[in-house]
């Protein structure tokens, strides 16, 4: 390396340098996993700042997660030091969308302090609208409507764009009507959902030339990581914003496109070359992350997909261990096995921070959590919504939201009778009626109804107290630090007392969570900023930084790397998911395979793939067969230790020798060794394997119905 090189160029290979130094004009970096795409993008950002080609405020850099944004900020800071005074436009599409929309909210009929609804609020709202429209909620579930509306928003469609064909997708053609009603309701609440953060801004950019020109001028440079997972609305954003300077640099890997179920369009990669003719295309081929065995295993699997853009990958690293493939008896044994292996790793001096367990579906984490709690293995769940999803946290946040924004009806509804203050459904319904009749927020209606004789004296007193309290808290909010306000509010509302009275272990945990919430608030300047943070960042990455094993979904692991990675539950019906199997065709199956590729390529040194012969799914023991992806791993690069392959004869042969995994299996009544589960299991192995297999399909698809992977890595 040249001694005169600025720090950020040190060690970069020639194509990486090209990606960094080609600052002007459109650039597309198309390269496989671990080839240093994100590293190059980070260096590029450093380069633009170091050479003063742009002020920090003139660069728009999009990452896929908040965490990735934090890391990039940190690294650029280290690389170029003082040059950086904060990078206001570095973040996820959602974070950037929220920031822009706050400035221009009035152009779409919102106020700048609008609330960002989470999925739960969104569903409750849609449910109300479904009821108001006299639709059968069972037949036309709110979830389905929410998914459809999301889809439209991802595609950049506003209610007026919904034609009869689209509308037909819900409630016999009433989809468009529901969408319109939903948008109207959101405006009345001064709220928007995640999709709106991008869609409203797109509408503004399209209809307000001055705003568009402002941002087109401002963003001299635009950079996007994980470009293969952008959806249409994001793509339209980029195309509009980059028109002026045309300095757009996108990096991605078609083999890692894993969010099509959320509207991502891998075709955006192909469109790039069309929309920006003459773009520089950079290909990176050296993988710096993984050993040759890991790389070969991943390449072997993805080679089974058709229609790939195709990339060469090589690594200079030495061979290392082969990918380990382990067959176990059931879920608990899987968790035990992983726990044991990690224990060994730890004894060999490795940090737990370098170990990850990747699951296909969120519900799979529980088994590991239970095990790790039992053996005292520190772990963290990343990408789930654990902390902020807890009921007590949601309640506390609802109080804060009402104080922050009195028109926040959903929040008001949530706390109106929590803790119980003698406001029955009837009283609440009356407030609703008045709100609807007068077209005002619930808070206003609540205040007005006090002047009537609609309520019983008891309800009137209770509601009067609540309305008075909220008004008082709003006053206090003006000059009291917001964490202090939260503390007082939780006391005065009786909320803390409710759990103090409960005296259960559970209640103690909840009180701890509430204190943790107040602690978290102290890190933010204003209540509004904190609430915004909560809406955007729903992950609970440890407050304390002692080493922990990471448990996360594959979706959430995109872009990350760990020395040792455990890939669990590689069974047909779990991975590939039953949903993908039910859908048939190659499309969803190929997306599952890309997920497998992403999963394997997260490993630097060691990858362990596990499949279990039996799973308990919704109380039902079912037998499973190893994932087809296990079969696609090239033999030369794996070590198999398949003690359990899922065939009935094999189970029986092994039955008597393997005491441990069968500890809770008692002798049944059938021929030979019985399949009867011991007491405690909700269902039993009383049938022959053939029957078990038969019951499997329905049980498994039930298990997947909850769209487990939805709660992953979104919101970002
Ligand atoms: P993914 O497709 O998974 O997002 P990526 O292409 O973004 O991967 P990076 O995460 O940027 O790859 O890099 C993978 C690893 O290789 C990182 O540990 C990074 O520090 C390292 N790396 C990248 N470029 C180089 C280089 N030129 N020399 C040495 N190490 C490098
Ligand atoms: Mg990356």
TrEMBL record:
<dbReference type="GO" id="GO:0005524">
    <property type="term" value="F:ATP binding"/>
</dbReference>
<feature type="domain" description="UvrD-like helicase C-terminal">
    <location>
        <begin position="292"/>
        <end position="559"/>
    </location>
</feature>
<keyword id="KW-0067">ATP-binding</keyword>
<dbReference type="GO" id="GO:0043138">
    <property type="term" value="F:3'-5' DNA helicase activity"/>
</dbReference>
<dbReference type="Pfam" id="PF00580">
    <property type="entry name" value="UvrD-helicase"/>
</dbReference>
<keyword id="KW-0547">Nucleotide-binding</keyword>
<dbReference type="GO" id="GO:0003677">
    <property type="term" value="F:DNA binding"/>
</dbReference>
<comment type="similarity">
    <text>Belongs to the helicase family. UvrD subfamily.</text>
</comment>
<dbReference type="InterPro" id="IPR014016">
    <property type="entry name" value="UvrD-like_ATP-bd"/>
</dbReference>
<dbReference type="InterPro" id="IPR013986">
    <property type="entry name" value="DExx_box_DNA_helicase_dom_sf"/>
</dbReference>
<dbReference type="GO" id="GO:0005829">
    <property type="term" value="C:cytosol"/>
</dbReference>
<keyword id="KW-0413">Isomerase</keyword>
<dbReference type="GO" id="GO:0016887">
    <property type="term" value="F:ATP hydrolysis activity"/>
</dbReference>
<dbReference type="InterPro" id="IPR027417">
    <property type="entry name" value="P-loop_NTPase"/>
</dbReference>
<dbReference type="GO" id="GO:0033202">
    <property type="term" value="C:DNA helicase complex"/>
</dbReference>
<feature type="domain" description="UvrD-like helicase ATP-binding">
    <location>
        <begin position="10"/>
        <end position="291"/>
    </location>
</feature>
<dbReference type="InterPro" id="IPR000212">
    <property type="entry name" value="DNA_helicase_UvrD/REP"/>
</dbReference>
<dbReference type="GO" id="GO:0000725">
    <property type="term" value="P:recombinational repair"/>
</dbReference>
<dbReference type="GO" id="GO:0009314">
    <property type="term" value="P:response to radiation"/>
</dbReference>
<keyword id="KW-0347">Helicase</keyword>
<dbReference type="Pfam" id="PF13361">
    <property type="entry name" value="UvrD_C"/>
</dbReference>
<comment type="function">
    <text>Has both ATPase and helicase activities. Unwinds DNA duplexes with 3' to 5' polarity with respect to the bound strand and initiates unwinding most effectively when a single-stranded region is present. Involved in the post-incision events of nucleotide excision repair and methyl-directed mismatch repair.</text>
</comment>
<feature type="binding site">
    <location>
        <begin position="31"/>
        <end position="38"/>
    </location>
    <ligand>
        <name>ATP</name>
    </ligand>
</feature>
<protein>
    <recommendedName>
        <fullName>DNA 3'-5' helicase</fullName>
        <ecNumber>5.6.2.4</ecNumber>
    </recommendedName>
</protein>
<dbReference type="InterPro" id="IPR014017">
    <property type="entry name" value="DNA_helicase_UvrD-like_C"/>
</dbReference>
<keyword id="KW-0378">Hydrolase</keyword>
<keyword id="KW-0238">DNA-binding</keyword>
């Amino acid at each position: 390396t040249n001694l005169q090189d600025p720090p950020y160029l040190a060690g970069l290979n020639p194509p990486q340098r090209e990606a960094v130094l080609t600052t002007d004009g459109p650039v597309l970096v198309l390269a496989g996993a671990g080839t240093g795409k994100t590293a190059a993008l980070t260096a590029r950002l450093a380069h633009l700042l170091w050479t003063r080609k742009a002020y920090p405020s003139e660069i728009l850099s999009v990452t896929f997660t908040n965490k990735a944004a934090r890391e990039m900020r940190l690294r650029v800071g280290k690389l170029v030091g003082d040059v950086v005074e904060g990078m206001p436009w570095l973040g996820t599409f959602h974070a950037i969308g929220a920031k822009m929309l706050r400035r221009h909210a009035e152009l779409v009929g919102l106020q700048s302090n609008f609330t960002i609804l989470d999925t739960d609020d969104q569903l409750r709202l849609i449910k109300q609208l479904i009821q108001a429209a006299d639709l059968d909620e069972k037949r036309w579930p709110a979830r389905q409507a929410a998914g459809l509306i999301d889809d439209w928003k991802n595609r950049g469609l506003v209610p007026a764009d919904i034609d009869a064909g689209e509308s037909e997708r819900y409630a016999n053609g009433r989809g468009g009507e529901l969408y319109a009603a939903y948008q109207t309701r959101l405006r009345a609440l001064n709220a928007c959902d995640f999709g709106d953060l991008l869609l409203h801004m797109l509408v503004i950019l399209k209809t307000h030339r001055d705003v568009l020109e402002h941002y087109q001028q401002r963003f001299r440079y635009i950079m996007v990581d994980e470009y293969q997972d952008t959806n249409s609305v994001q793509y339209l954003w980029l195309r509009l914003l980059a028109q002026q300077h045309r300095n757009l640099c996108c990096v991605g890997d078609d083999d890692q496109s894993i969010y099509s179920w959320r509207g991502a369009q891998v075709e955006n990669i192909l469109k790039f070359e069309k929309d920006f003719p003459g773009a520089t295309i950079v290909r990176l081929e050296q993988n710096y992350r993984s050993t040759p065995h890991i790389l070969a295993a991943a390449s072997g699997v993805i080679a089974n997909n058709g229609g790939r853009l195709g990339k060469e990958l090589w690594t200079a690293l030495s061979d290392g261990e082969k990918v380990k493939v382990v067959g176990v008896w059931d879920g608990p044994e899987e968790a035990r096995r992983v726990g044991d292996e990690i224990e060994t790793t730890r004894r060999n001096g490795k940090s737990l921070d370098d170990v990850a367990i990747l699951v296909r579906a969120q519900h799979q984490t529980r088994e590991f959590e239970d095990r790790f709690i039992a053996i005292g293995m520190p772990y963290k769940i990343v990408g789930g919504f654990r902390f902020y999803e807890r009921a007590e946290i949601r309640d506390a946040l609802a109080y804060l939201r009402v104080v922050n924004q009195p028109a926040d009806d959903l929040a008001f509804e949530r706390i109106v009778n929590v803790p119980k203050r003698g406001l029955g459904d009837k009283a609440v319904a009356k407030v609703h009626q008045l709100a609807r009749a007068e077209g005002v927020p619930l808070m206003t209606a609540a205040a007005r109804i006090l002047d009537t004789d609609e309520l019983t004296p008891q309800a009137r007193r209770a509601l009067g107290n609540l309305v008075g309290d909220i008004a008082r808290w709003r006053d206090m909010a003006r000059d009291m630090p917001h964490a202090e306000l939260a503390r007082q509010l939780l006391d005065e509302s009786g909320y803390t007392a409710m759990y103090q009275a409960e005296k259960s272990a559970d209640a103690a945990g909840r009180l701890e969570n509430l204190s943790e919430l107040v602690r978290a608030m102290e890190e933010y300047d204003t209540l509004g900023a904190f609430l915004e943070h909560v809406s955007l960042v729903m992950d609970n990455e440890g407050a304390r930084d002692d080493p922990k094993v990471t448990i996360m979904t594959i979706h959430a692991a995109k872009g990350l790397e760990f020395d040792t990675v455990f890939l669990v539950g590689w069974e047909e019906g779990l991975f590939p998911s039953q949903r993908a199997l039910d859908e048939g065709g190659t499309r969803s199956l190929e997306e599952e395979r890309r997920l497998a590729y992403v999963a394997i390529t997260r490993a630097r040194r060691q990858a362990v793939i596990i499949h279990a012969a039996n799973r308990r799914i919704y109380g039902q023991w079912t037998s499973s067969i190893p994932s087809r992806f296990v079969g696609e791993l090239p033999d030369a690069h794996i070590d198999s230790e398949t003690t359990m392959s899922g065939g009935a004869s094999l189970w029986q042969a092994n039955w008597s020798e393997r005491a441990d995994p069968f500890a809770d299996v008692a002798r049944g009544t059938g021929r030979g060794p019985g399949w009867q589960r011991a007491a405690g299991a909700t269902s039993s192995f009383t049938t022959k394997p053939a029957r078990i297999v038969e019951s499997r399909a329905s049980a498994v698809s039930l298990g997947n119905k909850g769209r487990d992977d939805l709660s992953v890595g979104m919101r970002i």
